[in-house]
Sequence to fold (1248 residues):
Amino acid sequence: MAIPVDSQHWANLIWAVLLLPLAGFLFQAAFGKKITDLLGESAGRAVLGFMAVLPIAAGFLLSVIIARNLGGLEPEARLFITTWFNWIDLQSLQVPFELRVDTLSMTMCLIVTGVGALIHLYATGYMAEDRDYPRFFTYMNLFILFMLLLVLGNNLPLMFIGWEGVGLCSYLLIGFWYQKIENAKAANKAFIVNRIGDWGFMIGMFLLFAVFAASQGVIGEGELRYLSFDVMFAHAQEVIPQFGPVVITAIPLLLFVGAMGKSAQFPLYLWLPDAMAGPTPVSALIHAATMVTAGVYMVTRCHIFFELAPVAMLVVACVGAFTAIFAASVAFGQTDIKRVLAYSTVSQLGYMFLACGVGAFSTGMFHVTTHAFFKALLFLGSGSVIMAMSHDQDMRKYGKLSKYLPVTYFTMLVGWLAIAGIPPLAGFFSKDEILSKVFSSGSHWAGQWGGFNPAVLYVVGLVTAVMTAAYMTRMFYLTFHGPEERWRNLPVPAHHHAHAVAVTGEAHGPDEHGFFLADEEVARRAAEEEETHHELGPGHQPREPGFTIRFPLLALAACSLLGGMILAGLNPLAEMFGAETPHFFEVWNEPSAGAALLPAETMFRTEHSTEWILVGVSVLAAVIGIAYMRFRYAKGLPEDERRLRGWRRAAGMQWYFDAAMYRLFVEWGGRFSNGVKRWFDEGVIDGLLVHGSAWTVGAFGKVFRKTETGYVRTYAMTMLLGSVLILGYFIWVVSR
Amino acid sequence: MSDTNLTPAPIDWMALLPIIGVTATGVIAMIIEMIRPRQTNNAIVWCCLIGLGVSAYFVLANWSRPAEETFGGLFMNDRFGQVTQLLLIGVAFITVLFSEGYLREKRVPFGEYYPLVLWSTVGGMIMVATRDLLILFLGLEVLSIALYVLAGLKSGEKRSQEAALKYFLLGAFASGFMLYGIALIYGATGTTHVTGIGELYALRETLVDRYPFNVLYAGIGMVTVGFAFKAALVPFHMWTPDVYHGAPTSVTGFMAAGSKIAAFAALIRFLDGAMDLSSVWLPVLTVLAVLTMFLGNLVALVQRDAKRILAYSSIAHAGYLLVAVIAYSKAQGMFDVEIGYGTVIYYLLAYGAMTLGSFAVLSLTARGGREGTLLEDFHGLWRRAPFPAAMMLIFMASLAGVPLTGGFVGKLLIFKDAIAVDMLWLALVLAVNSVISVFYYLRIVLAIVVREPDLHPTRFAAVNPGLFAACGICGFLLIWIAVAVDPFMKWISPPEQHAIELRESPPESSVE
Fold:
């Protein structure tokens, strides 16, 4: 299985890819403030920004080299495992610190470093005014480090470190502007909801550990690295079925719970919309392009466990499909541009799980890749709009922005058409492939899923495609088109200073987090607020942001435009004309993400004529969605958008799901916990056990202290007594 | 062991070098004391530090030699002795390091202090490197007599005088027991060498008519009393709080760390040589251990003086150490349990570092001839001296047994050993005591970190480089040995055991 890697091998370059962000992180953390102090604000920030982008960009170039070398090998040989040291070394278990270089991990690695580098570059512009510039890039580089560890780690514990690490960075970055209590709350929410997923992941991991540790006979006595993926996957088929159907199904389901948390699937999607509180580059990088796809990656990486359990596959497919359509419906009720994108992310992640659920893991990864392009593009574009509009995110106040922001407009146009699924843009290829594979695998799964008709999933996917096209059109037209510039109709904003004081709190009291601030700090913040905060008003002139913002937009637009065609090798089109052109992405990922047990060759096979029809149907779905919404929104803001009513209002509030969860767990759960605290913690534990036992012990101490009189005669007497007892013991008991 | 008492014993000067080194350093320091400039002891301090470093080097020079007895069986040169000698040298080193600033503030800047510390160390080094009871006694007296003087160093202070007198009276009492015990043992067996005693005892079935074993038991009982006094085991502990409290703080630190290391090492020696006797000892030691742990911890709870708290804490720790000793010597009699002396050494090192370190921090309250050691006197130390206070947190965490410190790993090792020899109940007693102890360590932390100084805050002494270094070394050691447990245990275990202790693991495959 594993290929020996000597120290000279090119696969070891992967360590550099991993360690570069670490170096970047340490540099930013250690010298960030010093450099701005030393060189002055603007020059210091230029250096820091450069030093933040550099490691990621260099990592991308190295990844390209590794991926090219990997592609030059035979498909079976595209796997290297390189070990640094033995991390956990026990008598019955070894977990080395080892990285896995294969096509799947390199795919993710290219996405993370490539898109990551572009977003870092974008962030140097976006965050240029922020006073915590070094802190931002410290977190961002740390995030890339953990994300790379997640995708490159060759065993479950390493993956888990990365998994938790990205969760931490996500928390830190969502709450980056922690001065506002809502942001801190959003960060907490993300962290807490993710805990539920992590719980599932951990239990799944423990279960796998128990199963493999108990199967030493099967995997070989000397093989102690049984938490490493290569050993696990090689033996999964023999080991896991021994433990009966419950374990077979429980393992993938528990892992999927983890994936649901990280990848925001219903019902654990709750945190993702709130995560938009973070700076926009964070939303683009972490909450759209990379971290949220970690769940899909994990399912794909561990696909053999899922393939063993058809029931788990059904669950994955259904949760994915339901999340896709649910989130798409919620997107209709959003007025905040970033929230529309957030729900569309949730919805697209649902598509990816739908693909995984029917066994098309490689297709799921394909959608991860194209989605990374166009969703990062859309988020960065929205960031550009938000910057131009004084950080006001309400689409109802936009309109006709194409006049002011041409570059943003054209790049977002590409992103919009790509996500809507218009050929030949990136989103079309992956989405169409998912739908076609869901459709074609129906006959295979119909038998496995006892009565459940897989055609339902296809229909749901198709309806979601119409909805996606529709709500993205709504967003696009509300923002860039329409007859009037709607912010011109807004009232003139109130005086800034009053606002600033309201935000920073009273000069002499604690602020809302309980921090006492020095007077100078309060004054400084107020001044800063005054300087940076412009409220959107009639006199506002939107301006296109600078080069560092435009370049990533253009690069990602190019990827969204051409990426699908290149990666798919134009396959669907070519195949329709009878040519057997290989699907580049699928061939590339075949060794690592291709189905191991499922009959992939036969289950996805369709007639060319059927394929034609499927493509036609998906394009039609996109066109219908776009056309309907274009006519509805081209004339400007419809009357019913001013205040959402009816189903749109309900949809906008996530069909009251969030509120119900809040009521159930936060309010009632809080009341329950308070009760437990009062009666059990304070009453039984504190009162009886803690204070009771402390009192008892203290009483003993007080008694014993009395023996310490201070008189030598007492001491000598005690010693003598002790000696007599000991001697008595020796003489009488022992020599009896 | 040597029976050839008639031929002159071969003299192995190399093995003696560390002891000679420390003694000579003391002598040189004494000479410097006479010719130094009036105002400063710095030359003496430097001389001592260098001499101790050289002596440590002498120990390491003997490191790879095989274990053997020399001087006709009077001196034992083996890894155990070398490690404990190193520990004692380390204790003396750190004591010398932080003493000067303290003594100056305490207004007892006597040059004699340093030679006395060194010679006391010599006594300890002799104790740990012999299997002969008489030499052991000799070492014990050399150790103790210097300590009597040191305890009364501040002659103008009542507490200090009282401490010296009490220590001396009770010490003499205990020495009497010990010497009488040794005499009885000699009378019963005709030898003072523990190996000889053990061999004789092994043959007791056949020799029962020719040797009076009852006398031997009585002798052992009396020697036990001697050890128990030196190690401050209940009920022979009563001198400890008063003496620790009254003696100058640097002396207390040295006493608490150094003399306990020597006493326990000598105890291990005795048990090791006379292993067949362990069934006789163990019940007594077990009772002493339980009493010591409970009394030390319970009384520490109700103290208000930081030095007294630490005094009782050192009693409690003697109890923990005794558990380790019991497990060690019980394992020798069991077929399938292999426990080295590693746990005891590990705990001695951790104990030495955290005790000495915390006394070094306590010495900061001395200023201008006065010294307050009540908990209130430490309020606000965090502000005034952040580094020592931070180190104090490590020492307290380690004493309480918080993970990532040497104290935790040490307790864990003791726990493991006790369970391995089927003494789960004793391990549980240890655990319960460990929980109790957290309370009073937290009180010290509370006083140092949380509490604000009251109306008349203590004026702490300035942190001198020596104290800084002493705290830093102790703190670093505690963290380091907690991280590198395995390498440390390998390093201190005797060379011939390496082969056994190396874990059987499959060869590392180049296929990764």
In short: Chain A has a mean pLDDT of 84. Chain A touches chain B through 40 residues (CB under 8 Å). Chain A has 31 helices and two strands.
